[in-house]
Task: structure prediction
Amino acid sequence: MRNEWTEAEGRKIVEAVFPRVPTRGTDGLAPGKREDEMLLALEGYTDPLPALDGVTFGFYSGDPAPLLAAVSEVEPGWAKYYDGREPAFCGFVGETVVSFCLLSDFGEREILGVKSRVGGTGCVGTLPAYRRRGIGLKMVSLGTLILKERGFDYSYIHDTGVPDWYAKLGYKTIFKREIPAEN
Result:
C-alpha cells in the first residue's frame, strides 16, 4: 500500500472520497488560509506516541450535553455534527471531556484503481485549557489505530489547516488549496 502520491493522483483521490471538495480554484478561502486533504495508508500503522499520565481515551456515551458543551467551546459550528450518527472518540481527564473527534466511515472508494475502505477522524478539538499537552494528537493516533483494527485501508483527513500536526502521525498531504496572505 502506497503512502506517497503525485499531485494529480492526490486530486483523483480527493475527488473519489469527497466529490464536493473543489479541487480547482480557491472559492471560499480567505487570504492567508490553507486547506489540506491528507491520507494515511493504515497497513503497518502503530501508535507512535507514549501514554499520557492522567488522561484516558474512549468512545463517548451517556448524556450528550457535556460533549456538546466541550465541542461548542472549541468550535460552535461543529456541534451539529456530534448528533450520534458517528461515534465520538474522546480524551478524558477524570470524567471531563477535554478532547474529541468523530470517527467516520467514508465507505469503499477507489484509490488509484484499487477498491479501498476509507475512514477518518474529523472535527478534532481540544479544550483551550488542555492544549499543548499532546492530548489531541494522542487521541487522533488512537482513533487512527481503531480505524486500522476495524479493517480500514486508509485514514483520510478532510479540510485541515494544521497539516504539520497530522504529519507527525505519518499523514501525507495529497491536495491543498491556498490563497497567499494580503500584503
In short: Residues 7-22+34-176 form a domain with the Aminopeptidase fold (CATH 3.40.630.30).
